[in-house]
Amino acid sequence: MRFARSEDIVPAPESCHAVRATVDEAPACRESGEAKAIVFSLSGHAHFDMRAYMDHFAGRLAD
Q1: Helix or strand run (H / E) with residue 30
Q2: What are phi and psi of 8, to 5 degrees?
Q3: Rounded to whole angstroms, how far apart are CA atoms 45 and 2?
Q4: Cross-referenced SUPFAM superfamilies, in alphabetical order (predicted)?
Q5: How distant, in Å, are the alpha carbons of 21, 31, 36, 50 from that of 27?
């Protein structure tokens, strides 16, 4: 959600794993003082997954 709100892009579910790893790595680099370029691949879009996202946030998505 943080990425979608800040970048105005809803990534495909597969790409969300790369986004999450990047979001987790950035503060770790900042805390260690290590300067890094963090690159990730963003592919696809989630337009076909929007109903699932809406159902999830409304508590209607069954496991």
Answers
A1: helix 13-32
A2: 60, 35
A3: 16
A4: Tryptophan synthase beta subunit-like PLP-dependent enzymes
A5: 11, 6, 11, 29
Residue type for position 47: H
Tokens found for residue 32: 């260690």
Q: With a cut of 80, say whether residue 50 has pLDDT above it.
A: no
Tokens describing residue 52: 């699932």
Token pair belonging to 5 = 């709100």
Q: State how far the Cα of 23 lies from the Cα of 40, in Å rounded to an integer.
A: 10
What's the predicted TM-score (pTM) here? Answer: 0.59
Place of tokens 């990425």: 3
Amino acid found at 39: V
Task: Return the pLDDT at 58.
Answer: 93
Mean pLDDT of the 25-41 span: 88
**CA 36 to CA 29: how far, in whole Å?**
7
